[in-house]
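Two proteins, back to back. First:
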Amino acid sequence: MARETILVVEDDENIQQLVGYNLAKAGFHVVYADNGEQALSVIKREKPELIVLDLMLPGLSGFEVCKLVRKDPKTKNLPIVMLTAKSEENDMAAGLDLGADDYITKPFSPKILISRIKAALRRKEGLSEESGGAKKNGPLAIHGITIDPNRYEVLVGEEAIALTVTEFSILELLARRPGWVFNRQQIIDGVRGYDYVITPRAVDVQVFGLRKKLGEAGKYIETVRGIGYRMQG
């Protein structure tokens, strides 16, 4: 079976080698880019399964690369794990708002990085950690929204909606239990795994983006003040 290809976009040679070494050790095929422009070329040529993307790059920034990847229909669902020295909440929220699936700050644990990458790949393929490769539940329809976790598709009426992996996971989590209130930590745990550290603000950004993409149907994701979110029953 072919190894999954991971693109590491990082201009710091030491960090690039550290990330690449640990990815290769974990069984991935690793390709590299030193800047944003080179990253876009490598994506077209190598068609990686995931990108580890530094934000502070010469030329095109990681933010700009992320935006361009999400705009291209061929790569709009490509998982992106942002890697950066910036740890401020606003930078984290901005990266997630552009469609990043995860966010890791330097210095980082290689073990945690690999864990996050594997989790992002599982979410992309619609696989659960417990299933070992089995398909998820079948399509779900609620309030005119159809969610198919096996095809990774969302329809509002007849219109296909392009969601990031994280947005899709949040939508499915809420839709599977309409009327049930999930607090922000439960959403993080359900979507990313229990070792994920993130602020409530980042969850709010994801839900805001999800509602916006769903259009009129976004109103069915209700805010429960002081607690979290629920899908209207």
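And the second protein:
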Amino acid sequence: MHAQRGVSLIVSLLMLIVILLLGTSAAQIALQAEKGSRNDRDRQVALQAAEAALMDAEMDIEHSPDSARSRSHLFSSEDMQGFPESGCNAGIGNIRLGLCAPPLPDAEPVWASVNFLDESGNANSVPYGQFTGASFQSGAGPLPARRPRYIIEPLKFTYKGQSAEMPTVFYRITAIGFGMRDETQVVLQTHYRKGEK
């Protein structure tokens, strides 16, 4: 009889260690992929909320479907009535809420200093539906954590051959949307010109 040396036991243990390491790394890869897809979905929810806020602001400028809340008369292609000289109008009950001063040359843009997270009575950004009567579900589950918000700034533009005394007024809309987590935020901007009647 030959003496047993136990080589097969060592080989079996090494194979089990290799299989354990492969299983652990596969589980980690699967968890990372799931986290990545969850974060991507959260960002997509925030992006869609910000896009909805841009459309709500365009309706606010053009013509609100809710005539009782409409402030479309404040937006004109010739003047900037209702816009402050500096900063942004605040106050939830204020009809001029979220209307911000025209940008000054070489100054920080007004939208960069607005606290879009403020939902108090002194907020200076407009919550979705404030002037259009539109509703937006938010809160729990796959919904955004809170309603999107926006501000509007007037911008003067002079076309070639147009009198500098009668510039065309465009509006820069800055909107923020939130994901399912409050920390997930997407900010979008667009320029909009009110249609001629």
